[in-house]
Amino acid sequence: MNAETRPLIKPLSSGVGNMASMKAVFSRDMKVAFRQRQDLLNPLLFFVMVVTLFPLGVSPEVSFLREAGAGILWVAALLSVLLSLDHLFRHDFDDGTLEQLVLQPQPLFLLVLAKTLAHWTLTGLPLVLLAPVLGVMVHLEGNSIAVLCLTLLIGTPVLSLIGSIGAALTLGLRSAGVLLSLLIIPLYIPVLIFGTGTVAAATEGAPVAAYLALLGAFLVLAITLAPFAASAALRISLSNS
């Protein structure tokens, strides 16, 4: 077992409440992540590099960037989240922590939800915070930047929740990164379409409430179903390993 993570692994007794167990798992994942800072920085650097290099490789014209800026930022955010998904369960699988989580008396789907929330806090939330700066870089207007940040705030948790299912299914497999991309990217497309469509509607002055409502529905659906699917996938992956 990894010496860095061993002190943070504490068995949860049956008397510990569900919220307390989720808080313990969330806190542990945050502490472990900050001890492995390279895994934290890679998605953020990738996000910044894609958005920065896109105008150099395609066109630096203001009109083009203003029209395509939301799509550029959303695609970069999607790929950044995808880049970090392989580490969601990988380290815990390698050092034996995942087996301990499965054996806990608390429902596994709640522990998976806590791990996914930690993943979003470390990966998705920084992307949301960086979006205004990069939005200015691609010449988006103030209202469009605000709507972009709101769509990312709603949409990136959906990406993490859906991605947790793929990460659990491909756990322990060779070429897991390629398989994960093939499984997850088709499921990301609706979120990408409505995320960019919301910003496009805001740019044209059209109402965006319907788009935001659909993104919110995606988030509620993902929170409701994804932890159950990911926990079932984890049990299957561990039984086959």
TrEMBL record:
Keywords: Cell inner membrane, Cell membrane, Cytochrome c-type biogenesis, Membrane, Transmembrane, Transmembrane helix, Transport. It comes from Marinobacter albus. NCBIfam families: ccmB. The chain crosses the membrane at residues 40-58, 109-133, 145-171, 178-202, 208-234. This is Heme exporter protein B. It is a multi-pass membrane protein. Its main location: membrane. Required for the export of heme to the periplasm for the biogenesis of c-type cytochromes. Pfam families: CcmB. It is found in: Cell inner membrane. The gene is ccmB. Belongs to the CcmB/CycW/HelB family.
